[in-house]
Amino acid sequence: MTAHHTLRLAALTGLLLSGTALVSPLLAQATQQTPAQQSNAQPTVMDHVRATAQSATGSPMADLDMDMRHVITALNGLDPKPIPKLTAAEARQQPSAADAAQQVLREQGKSSLPDPAVMAKNILVDGGKGKIVATVYTPASASGPLPVIVYFHGGGFVIANNATYDASARMLSKNVNAIVVAVEYSKAPEHKFPAAHNDAVAAYSWVTKNAASIGGDPARIAVAGESAGGNLAINVGIAARDNKLAAPKALLVVYPMAGTNLDTDSYKANASAKPLDKPMMQWFYNNLVNSQADMQDPRLDIVGKADLKGLPPTTLITDSIDPLQSEGLALAEKMKAAGVQVDARNYDGVTHEFFGMGLIVAKAKDAEAFATRNLGTALAK
Amino acid sequence: MRTIPALAVLALLSGTAPVLAQTPAANDAEFVAKAMTGNVFEVEEAKLAVQRATDPRLKTFAQHMITDHADALKKLNDAASTMNVTPATALDKPHQAMLDNLKTFNGADFDKIYKTDQVASHAETVALLSDYDQTGKNSALKSWAKQSLPVVKGHRNNINAM
Fold first, then answer.
1. Class of the A118-378 domain?
2. What is the pLDDT of residue B78?
3. Of A76, A273, A277, A339, which has fewest CB within 10 angstroms of its CB?
4. Chain B residues with beta carbon closer than 8 angstroms to that of A36
5. CA A110, A168, B116, A187: dihedral to nearest 10 degrees?
């Protein structure tokens, strides 16, 4: 007998005893189960109800893994307003996928506090125009110069900050045993394209010259990023090549914004996916660019226009319930064609933002181990 | 709710429950200690900001921190009075390191670091209070966490918007 059967039995018992409509005890049971849920992989009754409804309507969300589904359910519970209807300032106040992941940890009786195995401090580094903030993450047990990972968070170049992506940065610092320098690059629309790109390159250049001042080994630097940050990571690799900066030892690129075609197969299939949908992407680009001409810039249309020859070995992670999947897959192919050493993995059943959720989503844990292994190898002495 | 232990047993027997390494939520004493540390940290950084910040919005924010946290700390001490917890007088290592780091900045540089420190600190405080609000055992502490959450979320929204 499975847990699910037990639940249905309990719900039926409730129905017989109370004599109320079937859906009421089902819903009550689903709600009550959450606090005592022992594993994020166990389906709740509501999961089955939703999966059936989504399957019938052809929603991309029907294919969610159970543990990822719980994160998306928690996000819905936090009641985020649809970003395309908001100003940038309002959008930045909305609950994030990271908030939902914290809520799932809580429902399992676990701490949602930052991992104490990693220390964080904020410093100033070079930006495109003047100094910008970077958060330096250091393993609490660190000794001797460590390799450095320059990390760029996601958020469509408009929303989110280092605090939103704290879990990813801490995870990389702890697992790779590296200093992570998370760059708080400028956001649009206050700072339009290419402000973030200029910040990213200047910050990387700063790290190549000042790694020792933060306990890092200047000979062992990698660049990583998620989503908009994945775009920045690729562009830093390109700029290092073109501007004769010290080349990163490796790139880690997670579900990047790698193209400006909003009509790819994955955009069509995941136009209404969560936590990232097509209207959000349109809104991000509208806030980011000065004019439609920017959409043709090789820094944004990487898969269409960028020269990728001579880039460092690249680990590329994509996921299936994500408008950005097609451009991520296309980027992997284009890099391979340009002779770049690419190790690409796609994860089905999970969504944009799954990376960094390794404590509660099995495939995130797998993707994090994959990234850790590749960065660890590239950054070994 | 009688099905819950049965569910747990089933999960263990069937091996479907992955053992996750994440720390359990803070217990009562840990919660009080962390909440006091967080309070002291935010007040200490605010005292510096009142003197050094150049952005008047940050100065105002810092003044609010000092006022609101004095109140929060008093109420926390009341809530914890039955618990035989010694109020925190020193910061833990990560918070002391952040405070020492902030002291090295002046002018516009100070503003940038203070703001980013406070964004991170308020994210952490919201997580701490939310954890206890939903998983805590002591009713006095729980009601303190519940009362404090909207105030802290308000601070968080203010600093995130700057």
1. alpha beta
2. 86
3. A339
4. 1, 4, 7-8
5. -130
The per-residue pLDDT for range A59-96, each reduced to its tens digit, is: 788 889 999 999 999 999 999 999 999 999 999 999 99
DSSP string for residues in A117-181: TEEEEEEEEE-SSSEEEEEEEEETT--S-EEEEEEE--STTTS--TTTTHHHHHHHHHHHT-EEE
Chain B residues whose beta carbon lies within 8 Å of the beta carbon of residue A41? 16-18
* Residue B8 contacts A where some CB pair is shorter than 8 Å: yes
Q: 3-state DSSP call for residue A378?
A: helix
Q: What is the per-residue pLDDT across A131-160, written as a single tens digit (0 to 9) for each?
A: 999 999 999 988 889 999 999 999 999 999
Tokens 């090295």 found at: B104
Please enumerate in sequence order all residues whose Cβ is within 8 A of that of A76, keeping only pairs 6 or more positions apart, or say none.
Answer: A274
Show which of residues 115-134 on chain B sit within 8 Å of chain A, judged by CB atoms.
115-117, 119-120, 123-124, 127-128, 130-131, 134
Domain borders along chain A are 118-378
> d(Cα A371, Cα A315) in Å, to the nearest integer?
7
What would the mean pLDDT of A159-183 be, rounded to a whole number?
98
Please list the active-site residues of A. Answer: 227, 322, 352
Secondary structure class of A285 (helix, strand, coil): helix
Q: Which of residues 18-47 of B touch A (CB under 8 A)?
A: 18, 20-26, 34
Q: Does the pTM of the predicted model rise above 0.90?
A: no
Residues A213-236 as b or e (16 or more Cβ within 10 Å = b): ebbbbbebbbbbbbbbbbbbbbbb
Taking only residues 66 to 105 of chain B, the set having a beta carbon closer than 8 angstroms to any beta carbon of chain A reads 93-94, 97-98, 101, 105
- DSSP, res A113: S
Domain positions in chain B? 25-160
Question: Does domain B25-160 fall into CATH 3.30.750.24?
Answer: no
Angle at A360 between CA A227 and CA A258, to 5 degrees: 10
**Interface ipTM:** 0.84
Taking contacts as CB-CB distances below 8 angstroms, the residues of chain A near B125 are none
